[in-house]
Amino acid sequence: MSDVDTDGGLLDVVGIGNALVDVLSHEADELVVRQGLTRGTATMVDADRADRVYAALGPAVEVSGGSAANTIAGLASFGARVAYVGRVRDDQLGSVFAHDLRAAGVRFDVTPASEGPATGRCLVIVTPDAQRTMCTYLGASAHLGPGDVDDALVARAQVTYLEGYLWDQPEAKEAIRSAARVARSAGRRVALTLSDPFCVDRHRHEFLGLVEGEVDVLFANEVEIRSLYEVDTFDAALQRVRHHCEIAALTRSEHGSVIVADDEVHVVDARPVAHVLDTTGAGDLYAAGFLHGLTRGLGLDVCGRLGAIAAAEVISHLGARPETSLAELAAPVLGGAPGRPAS
Amino acid sequence: MSDVDTDGGLLDVVGIGNALVDVLSHEADELVVRQGLTRGTATMVDADRADRVYAALGPAVEVSGGSAANTIAGLASFGARVAYVGRVRDDQLGSVFAHDLRAAGVRFDVTPASEGPATGRCLVIVTPDAQRTMCTYLGASAHLGPGDVDDALVARAQVTYLEGYLWDQPEAKEAIRSAARVARSAGRRVALTLSDPFCVDRHRHEFLGLVEGEVDVLFANEVEIRSLYEVDTFDAALQRVRHHCEIAALTRSEHGSVIVADDEVHVVDARPVAHVLDTTGAGDLYAAGFLHGLTRGLGLDVCGRLGAIAAAEVISHLGARPETSLAELAAPVLGGAPGRPAS
Fold it and tell me: CA–CA separation, A283 vs A67, rounded Å?
């Protein structure tokens, strides 16, 4: 809690995303099929459908989630100075979300909504193969608008990190475009994660434009990057993204990640994990490790290794936020004592 | 979910207790001291104090809890026909509590309160030695009254299971006394768990009277039973309880349990656990296994072994409810296929 930035100084990363509480449940594959969900993807649903799916789930566990929020919590665990922007309501799950972020050392100043839909929830169905299928009710998070993003906060963050899921909401899209403009005119970097293959399908044209003109660092997994360029192989997508974006970090589950930046190409191994329990948050935490390296000015290969360390930690337990200090896990790679650099 | 009793037939156990959602957090020992809490015990606090302690905790996980509710969920996992009585509010944590019980196969019919305090919470602070210290805000659960207990439900349950924590609330005490009367006049058994040494301190005189006159099966751990009789050794407490109660099941952590019933005495070993992660719910789940054996008419030694199996399962992970089917874990002891007996 001592890591919360209160001095108005430089921040490493500010994340903007859908603020969600995850409702985690272990289920058989049949349940996913019966509920009409697609394995390994995120389906956006309304409150009624969310209630129906929830009623079909077994006993569950509630933990704070949200893709960009998981990344930001991961960065805090590395010792980075971070802030988060996302909307909750003034209800119990909203308090849980805010508590968990702040307790992790994240600055979170958005005032909870006093009316409108409840705090958003993501039903995370973990099947026996540790794969997760998500069913998201955005609730209050859907109403993120330009007024929620503090320009001064964005201007003093080295990186503004955006999640693709935000493109599903017109108001949020406006907030994002405005944040990206502020960041770039302050000489900062903008990072984007494509979030989900269906999300890419819905917004391909806009995402291509963003990557072309506004995004400096792109995160995507194999399915997402192939979907973005509508190509059949990973290598074809790699050739396309290579000169399209300043830096692209492409994750391939147990096959590791590939990082490209102009002529530089790195192929980084995944960290072996004794027992993969829940893959939720793997991509979010990879991004946390990568951005931690990037904001410390480390080589792209080291950034990829830090991503692999963070992803390995989060898939070895239930839930999408680290349970072990990532600063400690990363100490052998970073060298010297864990924690933030002097600045 | 197919196990919910809807046919008005015989139930194995109905549990009555404080309906709470647990907020679990791993913390260093210093935090417990700094918050003025006593390690290994439950402290009852008001909403303000609960908020202050919560603010001092790191990121947490929310799971349904409540001592008797954990026992009932454990019984459902064995395949028993069970119901639960306890009060929540019509808020998000109340929905979580109700969902998790019903999804486990428990009948839960109490209408949530539409006004008054929020659903109760138990802050469970797990220290590095896997010990848990609890800080409980009863909220809506404190207002359990005689009107919430369905006499017909109690009359058709083989055992009515009560938690000692209920004695802290005058209204609840009335509900309990009434339920015990109904159970006994229907020829059923009444079981009581002493819950907590401080709770025993607060209500020693009443508990002694209950054990003498109304309780058929008593559950207590070593500290609680010594506190009840104000004696210094376990053996002294054992001699006292032996002819005081029809059946007493006394748990001693890794030293196993001792079961006494008139001239019958059994000393049952604890199940070895590779890695004890969180002792929350150990006593609750021991009671679940024991009562499952008892309601199936099994010997008291087998009841104790079933208790040990259930307790070992729950201390090997975070949270106080089983994550693995207890029916399957108990199959080698019960013989034959797991599941409920024909009746």
Answer: 9
Of A59, A63, A64, the CB nearest to B103: A59
Which residues of A are less than 8 Å from B140 in CB distance? none
The class (CATH top level) of B11-334 is alpha beta
| 3-class DSSP assignment, residue B323 | coil
- Condensed to tens digits (0 to 9), the pLDDT of residues A176-213 reads 999 999 999 999 999 999 988 888 999 999 999 999 98
Give the residue carrying structure tokens 């005119």. Answer: A185
What is the value of ipTM here, to two decimals? Answer: 0.84
Distance of residue A15 Cα from the nearest chain B Cα, in angstroms:
18
Fold classified for A11-18+66-115+144-334: UDP-N-acetylmuramoyl-L-alanine:D-glutamate ligase (3.40.1190)
H or E stretch including B85? strand B82-85
Q: Does A281 touch chain B (CB under 8 A)?
A: no
Cβ–Cβ gap B58/A104 under 8 Å: yes
Each residue of B204-260: pLDDT tens digit? Answer: 999 999 999 899 999 999 999 999 999 999 999 999 999 899 999 999 999 999 999
- C-alpha span between B61 and A63 (Å, rounded): 5
Q: Which two tokens stand for residue B283?
A: 């006593």
In the block, residue with structure tokens 């369905």: B150
pTM: 0.89
Which member of A1, A55, A62 has the closest CB to residue B62?
Answer: A62
- Output the six-digit token pair for A291: 């951005």
Dump the DSSP string for A240-289. Answer: HHHTTSSEEEEE-GGG-EEEEETTEEEEEPPPP-S-----TTHHHHHHHH
Closest of A187, A168, A157 to residue A15, by C-alpha? A157
